[in-house]
Structure formats: structure tokens, C-alpha cells
Prior knowledge:
Blueprint lengths: L5 H35 L5 H18 L3 H9 L2 H4 L4 H24 L6 H17 L11 H32 L4 H6 L11 H37 L1 H4 L7 H16 L8 H22 L9 H24 L6 H14 L8 H15 L4 H10 L7 H21 L5 H17 L6 H32 L1
Amino acid sequence: MFELDLAYSILLIVCLIAACGFEFVNGFHDTANAVATVIYTNSLKPWVAVIWSGTMNSLGVFAGGIAVAMGIVNLLPVESLVDQNIAHGISMVAALLLSAIFWNLLTWYLGIPCSSSHTLIGSILGVGIAYSLLQEAAGVAVDWGQAQKIGLSLLISPAFGFTLTIILMFLLRLATKNTNKGDELFKEPKKNTPPPPWMRGILILTCTGVSFFHGQNDGQKGVGLIMLVLIGIVPGFFALNERASNEDLMTSLKKIELVINNIDTRPLSSSDSTKLVSSIVMNKHLQGHLANHIDIGQIKKDDRFNVRRDILMMDRNIKDIIKNDEARLSESDKKILESNLKVTRNATDYAPPWVIVMISMSLGLGTMIGWKRIVKTIGEKIGKQHLTYAQGGSAELVASTTIGLASWFGWPVSTTHVLSSGIAGSMVASKGIKNLQADTVRNILLAWVLTLPVVILMSGTLFLIFRSIF
Length: 470
């Protein structure tokens, strides 16, 4: 398989299954985020809700693009960690997969809404940090700029969900004050009685939105994870996108070359000067690799990872030079560099269709299983009152909007934390802070705080153990 020995082929299959397993666990861990409100407001029967949610999750994966997936892949500079020793790639992949799956399963078993995004990102960071401790470590082990962006999106999104839900509840109460609809919205649902048709439609629509956008955002994380596995273990086959246009790539490299060759090195710091010289060399190497080929698929498998590494490092170096602004580039030159760097990334930022299908199926099937534990936590244990129509609709409307916008901009966010904070906000909007169940909120916050350090430590330790064994 992919020109690997039998033992490595088996390990690759195991890693791919484990990556699908992570997304499967993500599915049943996060199902509650979409279906809790429609179940607890009697809008849909539980099994109808989870099947519908699973279907929407699957469709969302196909509509998600790859911006979030590449954010995950680029968080860990694979070009620094991967070498000719396949076992090193397997060490990286196995460490982050085992850590992420273990923590997801543990928090699911305990019924604690925990972010699969935090878990995956913590696992990746742990491997990168551990690699930097090795004597043979070369280059940057973690893209801290990317980590900062992801961390900011994960930090802001729950606060956004909490605050916006309170505001929406206030506006809804104001708009329906002294009306029959207001009485219906803010009263506890009658047992086994569905809400009024108009409210039921809104709740089903918001459930659909959360499910679809969850597939867009969290599905991309699974796609990114699979690509980390493939690039880490069989880079000769997956380091480059064979569908990218070789002609477009060559044209962009030449345009980049014209600009960077004319940059005056005198104002540059020693660091940026080194990056510029390195970028010029890498650009020449890339043009040399591509010059004698009609398409990218003709590049030798042994050379493909080097081409990928040069594209990514050149991209990073030039963006650093532009950002520092020491080169005093004109706005037109900056635009030329930025637009053409984007074209070169078409060769590295991609996912084969079969990867998207695998993740879609894993997430969709996972969504239909194991939902009861966390549905109960969200529906009954965050607040002291039964979820009302207004609370369920407001929390899910805010969650679906937040996750949809995050997917559009390529930001990984936690569906779990956005919706849980929205439910908490709706409870506070109803009867104040005293309406929250302190034990549940404390457990959610504790999981939120502990996830990153625990998973970083776990994945980093496993990585160092596997590297020493292999």
C-alpha cells in the first residue's frame, strides 16, 4: 500500500481508522449541541432529531471547504517533523490521535460537554513542543502565529455565544411583552406536547443550522487530521496536490521572483535578510523542480515533500518580511506577493475527495450514536429550570450563526462551548446568575481549563516515548 512494507501499511490503516474514530467520537460527543433543544422542547422525537442532525453534519462536511482543515495542518509545521524515517511520522500521528481520542471518550463518559477542537489542537501542540526538546529538532516545531489565531477564536467564541444569547433573549422578551406568543415562549414546555407550529419550525431550523455548520467546522478538523496522517506517513503521495496547475504555479513563482529579487536588503534586520536570501534560493529550487514537468504529478515522489517544504517555508518567510514592513515594499508589490503566494499554496492546501467522504461518513454516523449523556447535561444540568422555547431557540440561533461565520473565515471554534455558553446565557437572561447549576458550570469550566494542558502533556509524552522506541 503506497509502496510501504506490510507492517507500515497496517500501521497506516490503523492510523486512518483512528482518525476516523476521532471524528466518530466527535460526532456523538457533539450531537447534543444540535439536538438538545429540539428534544427538550418536544419539537422532534430523539431518534428523528439525531438522524436528521447526522445527515446535516455529513452534508456540512462537503460544503465546508478546507480553510479550517489547513489551519489545523499548518498549526504543526510537518516539514520540520517529517524525515525519511517513516517511523517518526507514525510516532507523531499515533501520539496525537491516542491523546485526542482518549480525552474525548473520557469527557463523554463523564457526561461533560468538552471541546473536540481544544482536544485536537492540544494534541498537535503537545507533539510540536515535545519535538522541540529533541536534539535533532530542526526549524520551528509549532506555528505560534497560527496557534495564537486559533486560541483567540476558541477563547472569544464562548463569550460571544453567552453575551449574544442574553441580548437576544432580552430583545425577544421586549418584542413579545404582553402577548400570547410571549407567554408561550417563556413558559416551560408541557410534557410530550410539541410547541406551536411557528416555534417548532424555528427550533428545527436552528437545529439544522447548528448541525450543518458543525459539519462544516468540525468536519474540516477531521479532514485536517487525516491530511496530517497522510503527509506524515506517506508524503511522496500526499505532500502535493496533483490537480494544481503546474503552469499557474510556475507563473506565480516567476512573479514572486521578480519582486523579491529587487528588495533592498540594507533596511532589513539580519533575520529578515536571511529569510529573503532563503526565499530566493527556494524559489529557484521550485522552478527547477517544475520546469521539466507538464504537471505536478510528474515530480518524483522523493522530491515532492521537499517541494512542499520549500513552498510553505517561502510563504512563511515572505509573509514575515511583508508584516515587518522593513523591506518598504509598495502596496502593488505586496499585492503581487500575496496573490501569487496564494496560488502557490494551491499545491499544498488540499484534501482528496475520498478523505472528505470518509470524514463525512464518520461524523454523520457518530452523530447518531451515544448522544444521551451530554444531551441530559445540556438540557437539564446547566440551568435550574427546564429549557423553554425562547432559551432553546436563542441559544441555537446564536450558535449556528457563530459557527457558520467562523467556518466562512476559516476559524476553528468549539461547537460545544459556543452552545453550552449560549444555554448558560439564556438561563442567566431568564432569572439571573442564580439560575445556573454551579456544579455543572464548574465541571464544564474545569474541562475547558484542563483540556489543553492535560492533552499537551499526554501527547507530548507519548510522542517522546514512541520516538525513543522507534
